[in-house]
Design a protein that fits this description.
The structure is a homodimer of 390-residue chains. In chain A, helix 6 crosses helix 8 (267-280). Chain A contains twelve helices and twelve strands. In chain A, the strands form three sheets. Chain A has an eight-stranded mixed beta sheet with strand order 1-4-8-5-9-10-11-12, with helices on both faces. The first copy, chain A, has a two-stranded antiparallel ribbon with strand order 2-3. In chain A, 56% of the residues are buried. Chain A has 390 residues and is α/β, with parallel strands linked by helices. Chain A folds into two domains: 11-193 and 301-385, Rossmann fold (3-Layer(aba) Sandwich); 195-292, Rna Polymerase Sigma Factor, Chain: A, CATH 1.10.1740.110. Chain A starts with 10 loop residues before the first helix and ends in a 5-residue tail after the last helix. Helices cover 35% and strands 15% of the residues of chain A. Chain A is globular. Chains A and B meet through helix 4, helix 6, helix 7, helix 8 and helix 9 of A and helix 4, helix 6, helix 7, helix 8 and helix 9 of B.
């Protein structure tokens, strides 16, 4: 037993600045791996008001390293919410009109149970004793949260990247509970290249001796160097080659000539190092392992005998699939495959591929075409749903 | 002073199984960084026979982690030479006809002076005291080797990837010494994304505590974990998304179902881990830092007032530029930029973009179209050069 003073996990793990619901021993979550997770917590934020008919709820699903702070200042970083371009008063996901919910995913580190949370069996952080979670486990936990909030049917489920995978899983697992769905910059399965990049990130974390086979919190250590390398590698995949060239090119960092050394001569190096360092201050290394693994296991077609169309067969959910032309992480072709499956399954779907050079992260950026797409789609669905017009 | 028993560098560093020329104190190399490197060694292989006119010499330039063993078994790994599809008796670069030379680059770890070599000033390995080297430094060193061999003019300079950069630099620095040139799967400058991936690799190496600020050989340690992560990340860039999908897809590694763990469930994970592990047995970590940095500094246009065409102005060298359609590391557009500059500079050039889904590493693979292109180009140049016909 280790009696070293513990380096504490970030305060949001055990005492989140969010609403929290704890599902007790009577409400276990049986995971895809066949483990009963119990008790467990979900930390979440809400914006706006649920109407009397309970028909105006929108669930926003966050991406890999996102969190529930979609439209409020982040309690750890102090920065604005991560999707304020889309969500807020008067925004396409209008919090004056809709009741918006965003919960931290299972396996996360912002208050929902994850590997940094205390394992009730031992009193120590779970670390790798946390059961593996899948996208479906995340969605099943969210469904329990919706039950808790008394929301039978979501007006819409919206999310980008790993958030988009949750949208697709919601539509497949709970078609009657999803009136409309907007999967953005995502894929119905992780490709070999997607898995490869995630594996590099995990190996970078696990190569850090401060990772301590996952027990770094018990040991009062922090695998920040490995996690920073993982983040740097991942960050390249979030931007297009053209965007990097336009933004940084070969520009030098505050110097007139190269130093002929391993200093960050180039702005792109400085930028990446900064991305790595700022990430490790806010994210748990084991959580990174868990959420990347959840994505890797995601393959919606495989869950339906290899036919993606069967995942959406007879679905009445209205879909709006959005991709970005320069996204090479989850490319337009991956969204097109989703659209084909929805068409084959007979589900109503519109598809917008937004022309941009900004790569995968375009979905997080204030883009007029994306905003107009989301606004138009939600407006049309609101009319069909009989929500009061603006 | 460290008196620990030294973990020796690989035996090829100090006692290469190659020809070696040492340039003494009277023949220093003044590097781009303004340092006099002296003495220094170049280790090289040759194949075939130099003709009486000394007009049939082909210099092959190797890529980032390649070496001089282009067409013979590698003394470290026992594997066949790295370009036996192109170079050998009866092959496009026909060693029955041409005198083929390949030298280990400056900064390498196979016998040419690099960071694992003994610093004559201290008797210890150079480590980071090795002066930074550039692509031009590598080429200047090769030019000294050509002088040593009595070769005034090369019939052809051939190379892919970083080897292609050397080809371009040869043509720019020594136009009169290069009768023909074949830059393959390369670029005239490192893009922001190229630098970004290299920087991730370097940070992975330097994050490894066994790197010891570069002094791992003195300390008897080996930053293998960091170097393996660097190699894994780089390896993804050598293959196309389509090739990965075709070769590995989401296939599981010798198991019927996922383990819901961090084991290498997927074949692609197993493959990448193997790539990382086998690399660290043969390559020096500091050498990896140096050669990646040399690529990052490469920008042939910048050396000519920002105009690439000026690098080739009035060149009489005959060029054959080859790219591969699915290469996203040095994409077809980068080769096209070279071709445009050659056209603008008035140099004779042919350009072949080979349709393949195999990505950057396609240049190392036995490809009928690439072989035919190389054979045809060399045949035409041989006729112009007045070499005896086959």
């Amino acid at each position: 037993m280790n009696m070293m003073p513990s380096r504490t996990a970030n305060r949001e793990v055990e005492a989140p600045s969010s609403l929290v619901v704890e599902f007790g021993r009577d409400r276990p979550l049986v995971t895809d791996a066949g483990v009963e997770l119990s008790p467990f917590c979900i930390a979440y934020q809400t914006y706006g008001r649920l109407n009397a008919e309970r028909s105006n709820a929108i669930l926003v699903c966050h991406a890999l390293t996102g969190d529930q702070h979609v439209a409020n200042a982040n309690p750890l970083t102090g920065k604005p919410g991560w999707w304020t371009s889309l969500v807020g008063p008067g925004k396409p996901v209008d919090t004056d009109r809709f009741f918006v919910i965003c919960s931290n995913v299972l396996g996360g580190c912002m208050g929902t149970t994850g590997p940094a949370s205390r394992d009730p069996a031992t009193g120590r952080p779970y670390a790798l004793d946390m059961p593996m979670v899948t996208i479906r486990d995340m969605v099943n936990a969210q469904a329990m949260l919706m039950d808790h909030l008394g929301i039978a049917t979501l007006f819409c489920v919206v999310g980008g990247s790993m958030g988009g995978m949750q949208v697709l899983q919601w539509a497949a697992s709970y078609p009657a509970r999803v009136f409309s769905a907007m999967p953005v910059a995502t894929a119905a399965r992780h490709s070999s290249q997607n898995i490869a990049f995630h594996e590099v990130g995990r190996q970078a974390v696990m190569a850090d001796p401060d990772w301590c086979k996952g027990r770094y919190l018990d040991e009062g250590r922090h695998p920040g160097k490995g996690l920073a390398v993982a983040r740097m590698a991942a960050h390249i995949t979030y931007l297009s080659e053209q965007a990097l060239q336009r933004k940084f090119g070969r520009k030098l960092q505050e110097r007139a000539a190269p130093t002929f050394s391993f200093d960050a001569d180039f702005q792109i190096e400085n930028y990446l190092r900064h991305q790595g360092l700022s990430f490790v201050d806010r994210f748990d290394a084991n959580s990174y392992l868990y959420v990347t693994r959840a994505c890797d296991y995601f393959d919606l077609a495989a869950d339906h005998g290899g036919q993606l169309a069967l995942a959406f067969k007879g679905s009445k959910t209205r879909f709006c699939v959005v991709s970005f032309s320069s996204d090479w992480l989850y490319p337009t072709s991956a969204s097109r495959a989703i659209v084909h499956a929805l068409n084959a399954g007979g589900a109503p779907v519109s598809f917008v591929d937004i022309e941009t050079d900004r790569g995968h992260d375009a979905f997080l950026i204030d883009d007029p075409e994306f905003n107009a797409t989301a606004r138009g789609f939600l407006e049309g669905c609101a009319r069909m749903r009989g929500l009061p017009q603006e």
